[in-house]
Amino acid sequence: MARLLHIEASPRGAESFSARAAAAFVDEYRRSHPQDEIEQLRLFEHGLPDFDAEAAAQKMQHIAQLMRGEQGVAPIGKWAGVVAEIERLKAADKVLISTPMWNFSLPYRLKHYLDIVLQPGLTFYVNRRGEYIGMVRGKPMQLVIASGSAYAPGFPRADGGTKTDFLQAYLQHVGRWMGFEDIRVIRIQPTANPVPGEADALMRGGIEEARAAARLF
Ligand SMILES: Cc1cc2nc3c(=O)[nH]c(=O)nc-3n(C[C@H](O)[C@H](O)[C@H](O)COP(=O)(O)O)c2cc1C
CA–CA separation, 198 vs 193, rounded Å? Predict the structure, then answer.
């Protein structure tokens, strides 16, 4: 039995392209992997701990302790919430992230989540040569990304100097940083296409792609 964690970063529910494609993914995954457990983390509904002065101070203390060869900060105060989210992530065997593009990048709730789980000694460490080594290894990650405009693969991609996709590159980067080597991507774009009927066709294509991806996940 494996555990799939679905992290949903659009607040738009039934209107959301990324959430609808992810729902199709989860539905097909459940059908094709009936033994597996699925957990959904809706970032706009789930109360993440604030990463505030207390959490930042604990992080700095944690790093100082790790550098002295100690264990790091105990899970108390804000750090308890940080450790709990990391445990949830590590308990998963497979991770699905569905997200919109907001302002060429990620929605703030997803950044909030990543600022919580990206912690030295817990999800990555730095070796003596200064290299970053991921600690969340051996798990595939599926990204489902919806954006109003269409973006060509590759980074940086300047489109007349106004459109650059910082989202996919960033998510792939932090995924690899934590140790995810197998990162798969589904793009649903351009969702803001004004041609009548095109949005429905785009959604149907995204759902089909998501279902096919789920069978192989
Ligand atoms: C706050 C906000 C910022 C957005 N910024 C961009 C953007 O920079 N580039 C883009 O192509 N679309 C942008 N969009 C459009 C969304 O990416 C598009 O509506 C997408 O379908 C959202 O994903 P969802 O349907 O899963 O919620 C933005 C939408 C919102 C609400």
Answer: 7
Determine the residue of 42, 103, 163, 166 to mutate for testing ligand 1's pocket, defined as the one with the most ligand atoms within 8 A of the Cβ atom. Answer: 103
CA neighbor of 84 nearest in space, from 127, 39, 122: 122
The tally of domains found in the chain comes to: 1
Query: Ligand 1: which residue has its CA nearest to atom 9?
Result: 104
The model carries a pTM of 0.96
Would you write out the chain's pLDDT as a tens digit for each of its 217 residues?
999 999 999 999 999 999 999 999 999 999 999 999 999 999 999 999 999 999 999 999 999 999 999 999 999 999 999 999 999 999 999 999 999 999 999 999 999 999 999 999 999 999 989 999 999 999 999 999 999 999 987 777 656 667 889 999 999 999 999 999 999 999 999 999 878 889 999 999 999 999 999 999 9
| Chain-centroid distance, C-alpha 130 | 25
Question: What CATH number is given to the structural domain containing 21?
Answer: 3.40.50.360
Pairing of strands 132-134, 3-8: unpaired
- List the domain range (segments joined by +) for residue 207: 3-215
